[in-house]
Specification:
There is one protein chain. The protein is 78% helix and 0% strand. It is mainly α and 138 residues long. Helix 1 (3-18) packs antiparallel against helix 4, helix 1 runs parallel beside helix 5 (80-106) and helix 3 (32-40) packs across helix 4 (44-75).
Length: 138
């Protein structure tokens, strides 16, 4: 179990769910919800529900990873500074996920799609789709 990867997955998927409305308004298609909708040929609500289910699965992976690490430390009779550091790491991962969740529910960039900067987002989208011409270097 890679707990660090689960934290990253949670952050990315949560970002896509929370920024869906804004990214739709900008025509940005590189969003997990929109990709699910396209892949499955389903409605937006069904794709959003599926992304929520995936996010729930990632949260379960995090909890499982925490338990597995605690069990491994117990089995190894780990104590002292190493145990303290790993316990702190587990707490910090949990705090990071919680803070990320709270941030996404409160930050205007996610709660106010009307504040979208279409120029910057469109240029970033073009970079990922390969539609921006490459500049020559001499």
């Amino acid at each position: 179990m890679n707990t660090r990867q689960a934290v990253t997955d949670h952050s990315g998927l949560l970002n896509d769910i929370c920024s869906l409305e804004k990214e739709m308004a900008l025509g940005y298609g590189h969003n997990a919800v929109l990709l699910i909708q396209q892949e499955r040929g389903c409605g937006l609500q069904e794709a959003t529900d599926e992304a929520g289910t995936l996010l729930e699965g990632v949260a379960q992976r995090l909890q499982c990873g925490e338990r597995e690490l605690a069990e491994q430390m117990d089995a190894a009779h780990m104590a002292g500074p190493a145990r303290t550091a790993l316990d702190a790491c587990i707490r910090d991962y949990r705090s990071m996920v919680r803070g990320d969740f709270d941030y996404h529910l409160a930050a205007e960039r996610y709660t106010r799609p009307d504040l979208a900067d279409s120029g910057g987002q469109q240029s970033m989208s073009a970079l990922f789709t390969g539609t921006v011409p490459q500049q020559r270097t001499h």
